[in-house]
């Protein structure tokens, strides 16, 4: 307990100096905040220093002087802190009566404490106890401090209810610090002083300023109050410097004092250099934080642009789908069903070209619609149980005409043992097979061979499509399943959206399966694989029974 007072005093002075100086130097939007907070911290430091000296000197006249300065510092604290409460975190509406009352009475008590015996009359020492005798204004001064404290708390609480969430975080800890500071002052400086004759106990009321400074420092560090981040380093350096400075004055000899002085100079210089380096590091971190913030904002903007793109693709695809379907349907009736009668050969040649173009355009629109539905999470799988061999045969039939046009051999190497039945979306798996086989047809030179196989691999059905075509160059293999990517080696000869493999990958992932490929490089052919799990029962469908869904 003997060293508790000096330790608390050093901590309060160190934290107060660091806070006051850094706030004063910080760039806030309101200079009044900096000045009023600096004034409050200086007053608190003076309050505690002269209060401590008054309790521990053994000379009554000197003690009276210290206590008068102590009480004047108390008055100055309430003047400056009241002004601070009217401008932080936002300026409150002026109350002229409150302003004039608190400020004028504060100045009156400050001058009365310093230059008269109306507040502090005398100090007496009895049986190792110190007794402070107050003057005619002593009780009035106590009443002034109580009422001002409550009014400051009222201002903070009123602001807390009205300001935004960020400023609320700043004010919350100031309210707590002020509250505990007030409670401990009331307990030790009023209750204890009225019931115990030893006034030395009341110094702990002064030391309760540690709550105000501590909570403020916490707000500074955690919520960047005044945008100060170097406060902890400065506080530690000041505390160490003060402790070493005290060692100089309590040295037992000149030689010891000289050594302590050299240590103090070196430690203080090193501490100042450390503070500079910390400030430099913090400035660099702040720059990085600003750049990260800008990058985050740019990323958010890109997400918005990407969403707008997806929305546009969805809208455009839907709008294009109807007229394209009509064009394709009418052309089919003219060319296939011959509803318009016999067509001249030249006209038929042109109509065939238009029909193929409409089919290719319909495929592109279908791809865009699929991408839009996938990325907006509007794809719904309709699970059925059907032998995978039947799906492979059906898919081969749909692309066989293209294979024959390219003079390819397209075969299904049927498994010797029937594949296990499982649940999957027949339409989606068919679409994947057609897409993979279509790519094999396109990227294999005329007269090539394409083989489709399927196998049972440890609870998974694996389908493979192998060709002896152009293969995939090593440098392009990483982008096979990306959007708008074509990895062919003769791109100008092969038209497409570059969406097929991306869509296939997404469909397989919806089935909880996997898709991959193997290619030894350009000119060495490619084998695409995909697997789907063998399921004993139909997967849960949250949309079942809801009626029409996107498919």
Structure description:
By secondary structure, the protein is of the alpha+beta class. The chain has three domains: 4-228, Up-down Bundle (Rhopdopsin 7-helix transmembrane proteins); 297-375, Helix Hairpins; 383-533, Heat Shock Protein 90. The protein is built from 14 helices and nine strands. It has helices at residues 4-25, 31-56, 60-87, 96-115, 138-162, 165-195, 203-207, 209-223, 231-249, 254-335, 345-375, 388-405, 426-442, 500-510; strands at 120-126, 129-134, 383-385, 409-413, 423-425, 449-456, 460-467, 514-518, 526-533. The strands form three sheets. A five-stranded mixed β-sheet has the order 4-6-7-9-8. Strands 1-2 form a two-stranded antiparallel sheet. A two-stranded antiparallel sheet has the order 3-5.
Short account of what is shown:
This protein has 551 residues and is of the alpha+beta class. Helices cover 64% and strands 10% of the residues. The longest helix has 82 residues, at 254-335.
Annotated CATH topology of the largest domain: Rhopdopsin 7-helix transmembrane proteins
Q: At the fourth CATH level, what is the homologous superfamily of the largest domain?
A: Rhodopsin 7-helix transmembrane proteins
Label the overall shape. elongated
In total, the number of strands is 9
Structural class by helix and strand composition: alpha+beta
Q: Give the helix tally.
A: 14
Mean pLDDT: 79
Report the sheet with the most strands, covering strand number, pairing sense and barrel closure. Answer: 5 strands, mixed
| H-E string | HHHHEEHHHHHHHEHEEHEEHEE
Q: What is the CATH C level class of the largest domain, in words? A: Mainly Alpha
């Amino acid at each position: 307990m003997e060293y508790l007072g000096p330790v608390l005093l050093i901590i309060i002075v160190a934290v107060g100096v660091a806070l006051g100086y850094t706030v004063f130097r910080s760039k806030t939007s309101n200079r009044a905040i900096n000045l009023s907070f600096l004034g409050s911290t200086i007053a608190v430091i003076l309050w505690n220093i002269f209060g401590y000296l008054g309790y521990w000197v053994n000379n009554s006249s000197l003690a009276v002087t210290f206590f008068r300065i102590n009480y004047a510092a108390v008055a100055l604290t309430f003047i400056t802190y009241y002004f601070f409460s009217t401008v932080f975190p936002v300026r409150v509406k002026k109350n002229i009566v409150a302003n004039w009352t608190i400020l004028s009475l504060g100045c009156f008590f400050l001058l009365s404490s310093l230059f008269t015996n109306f507040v502090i009359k005398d100090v007496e020492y009895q049986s190792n106890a110190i007794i402070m005798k107050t003057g005619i204004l002593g009780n009035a001064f106590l009443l002034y401090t109580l009422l001002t404290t409550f009014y400051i708390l009222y201002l903070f609480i009123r602001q807390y209810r009205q300001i935004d969430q960020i400023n609320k975080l700043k004010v919350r800890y100031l309210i707590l610090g002020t509250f505990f500071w007030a409670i401990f002052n009331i307990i030790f400086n009023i209750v204890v002083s009225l019931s115990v004759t030893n006034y030395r106990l009341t110094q702990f009321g002064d030391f309760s300023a540690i709550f105000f400074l501590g909570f403020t420092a916490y707000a500074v560090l955690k919520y960047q109050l005044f945008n100060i981040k170097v406060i902890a380093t400065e506080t530690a350096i000041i505390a160490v410097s003060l402790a070493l400075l005290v060692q100089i004055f309590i040295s037992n000899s000149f030689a010891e004092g000289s050594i302590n002085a050299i240590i103090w100079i070196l430690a203080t210089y090193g501490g100042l250099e450390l503070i500079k380096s910390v400030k430099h590091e913090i400035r660099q971190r702040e720059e990085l934080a600003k750049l990260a913030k800008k990058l985050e904002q740019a990323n958010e903007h890109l997400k918005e642009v990407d969403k707008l793109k997806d929305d546009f693709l969805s809208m455009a695809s839907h709008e294009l789908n109807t007229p394209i379907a009509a064009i394709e349907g009418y052309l089919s009736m003219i060319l296939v069903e011959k509803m318009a009668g016999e067509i001249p050969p030249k006209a038929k040649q042109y109509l065939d070209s238009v029909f193929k173009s409409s089919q290719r355009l319909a495929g592109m629109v279908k791809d865009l619609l699929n991408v839009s539905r996938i990325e907006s999470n509007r794809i719904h799988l309709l699970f059925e149980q059907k032998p995978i061999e039947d799906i492979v045969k059906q898919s081969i039939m749909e692309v066989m005409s293209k294979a024959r046009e390219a003079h390819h051999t397209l075969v299904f190497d049927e498994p010797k043992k029937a594949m296990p039945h499982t649940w999957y979306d027949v339409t989606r798996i068919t679409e994947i097979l057609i897409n993979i086989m279509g790519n094999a047809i396109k990227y294999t030179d005329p007269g090539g061979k394409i083989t489709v196989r399927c196998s049972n691999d440890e609870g998974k059905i694996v389908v493979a499509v192998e060709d002896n075509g152009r293969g995939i160059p090593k440098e392009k293999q990483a982008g096979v399943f990306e959007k708008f990517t074509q990895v062919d080696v003769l791109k100008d000869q092969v038209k497409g959206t570059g969406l097929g493999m991306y869509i296939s990958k997404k469909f397989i992932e919806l089935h909880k399966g996997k898709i991959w490929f193997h290619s030894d490089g350009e000119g060495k052919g490619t084998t695409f694989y995909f697997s789907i799990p063998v399921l004993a029962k139909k997967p849960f469908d949250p949309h079942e029974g809801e009626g029409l869904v996107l498919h």
